Automatic annotation (TrEMBL), chains A, B:
It comes from Mariniphaga sediminis. This is LacI family transcriptional regulator. InterPro entries: HTH_LacI, LacI/GalR-like_sensor, Lambda_DNA-bd_dom_sf, Peripla_BP_I. The keyword Transcription applies. It comes from the Bacteria. GO terms for molecular function: DNA-binding transcription factor activity; transcription cis-regulatory region binding. Residues 6-60 form the HTH lacI-type domain. Keywords: DNA-binding, Transcription, Transcription regulation.
Amino acid sequence: MKKARTTITDIARELNISPSTVSRALNNHPAISKKTRDAVIELAKTLNYQPNLLALNLLRKRTNTIGIIVPEITSSFFSSVINGIQDLLSPLGVNMMISQSNESMEEEKSILRSFASIRVDGFLISPSSETKNFDHLKILTDNNIPLVIFDRDCEGLEVDKVFVDEYSGAFQAVEYLVKTGCRRIAHIAGPLSLSTARHRLKAYKDALALHHVPVKEEYIVESSGFTPEHGIKPTQKLLALPSPPDAVFAINDGVAIGAMYVIKKAGLVIPDEISVVGFDDDPHSCYFSPSLSTVWQPTYELGMLSARILMKRINSNNDLSDIRVEELYPELIVRGSSK
Amino acid sequence: MKKARTTITDIARELNISPSTVSRALNNHPAISKKTRDAVIELAKTLNYQPNLLALNLLRKRTNTIGIIVPEITSSFFSSVINGIQDLLSPLGVNMMISQSNESMEEEKSILRSFASIRVDGFLISPSSETKNFDHLKILTDNNIPLVIFDRDCEGLEVDKVFVDEYSGAFQAVEYLVKTGCRRIAHIAGPLSLSTARHRLKAYKDALALHHVPVKEEYIVESSGFTPEHGIKPTQKLLALPSPPDAVFAINDGVAIGAMYVIKKAGLVIPDEISVVGFDDDPHSCYFSPSLSTVWQPTYELGMLSARILMKRINSNNDLSDIRVEELYPELIVRGSSK
DNA sequence: CTGTTAGCGCGTTCAC
DNA sequence: GTGAACGCGCTAACAG
């Protein structure tokens, strides 16, 4: 049989005092006698009293919990962002509910509904790659529920947003490849439904154009995901070209690792015959041989900043007069997989 | 200004009916006229009514939320376990609160307290490496709050537990190294405060003993963590030995990757001069050169099973008559880093 | 210093 | 078919 958790009423009954007195004693209310306070606190400890936040939250209309929805938790990118979020929230006593949409808009909506019912104080969302319609997010703002979008954009939705300047990162990478003498630079793009993938593709084209390197469509292939497996086929396709590339700029490190694998299998030498550059600076990347050149993103800061903005929004009663769009800066890291 | 979320009272007032009627209409109570039901449902939709689960949970004494505490979320091991957990809970409509202890017992306790106050229905915990005293976990069982321990043991604590048979996995790995001709087999152990690390170390010694290979203390070094960085120094120490090892069995893939890095830098050829075997089957492992031999663990199943047991416990009113200790089986995967 | 009352939002009696 | 009253656990306002 389940014995009920102890409540202030329990300890009030035991001590023959009123629940409010117990409440006051427990909350260090000034007007309370030392004796009763001590008695209450001691009994609370022996009975292992834990305040029921459900009741308190119902009263306060605030849960001190924020909801986080990410496409996936497994990637080093998002788990590092979550680290940043937790390190900001923890000292503030704010809890996180985390859920993954698995890149599905339906799951995203369902998680959203569930979190909203739980009355989280606000949302931190990086939309799924399927999410092209933002009605469900719009509902949040319509109901005055604070929301911060991070990493992936929802174009047209007017809320706080925190991004990494993908364009700059990709531009740095491609420009660097050009400057090291590469002329047949290929790009393995990510799913183009993602704003991040589109920005990187655009930067790729712009950087080539700026340096008068012709953009060839056959050098642009799209991967359907972010793991090494997703890099295999696109790379095979590139190597099979009549004039194969002398450099590959991949959407992320995962795909780049798959690309390196195929390239080495084909007997080509990296970086002598072909350079490879990734994106994200996955913690493993520097241990590959050759070590992977990449674009580092301030993931931890991204999490921290997003959480900080959300908390500010929550504490300011969600005054929407000053929507913030912040941009963080990535940095090219040159390692062994490029000249 | 924050406009309050709509409640059943709001829509009752609007329709000139009582809140109970609204409640019934929303919950498909049979005894309700179709007209009022339709009216209620429509107004609820336009007003974007979301039931307040705080109130409901307070009433039901159940939150449909479970608390998960892991040492870190960044590792492929734990994030894959979390995947398994979510895939079991999601279809059941159960939410997860996730938090990381960062291998600190103090953080673990504080998270625990916070989750308990939120009244999660149960806990899924993999204790921090610092956690040697289990009083805080004991309190949960004393208060009849369901708890399942997974991956890392809390010896002496009588609750449901789900493990991987580490001993078997490590034994397979070491025995295989012996059989492929290695005689100077080193082990980079993990923090020995961890049951998992101790089991693997014991299996290492037992496997050597069984095959009459002498166990030498200088071949056993302890790493303080699980990333490639943590593998660097221990490996340097091993290579500096008068008679360096011809095989390294590392506590996990992260450390093994660091070891491979040092070994290759030293000009040694893997696996001809020295074999390397890891543990965990990190998704990146097969893309290294040489690809890393490792011990695969059923992480996803570990998560699923732990969650399933917890849910059963919760739904059975936490009847503690039949504590379960389950063990899942790991599997050696031979790749290029060993003969 | 302490007790009483009320209400947060909801579902569930028990009436009518 | 529907409404009124009650209580989940807690704090704040109002009395004493």
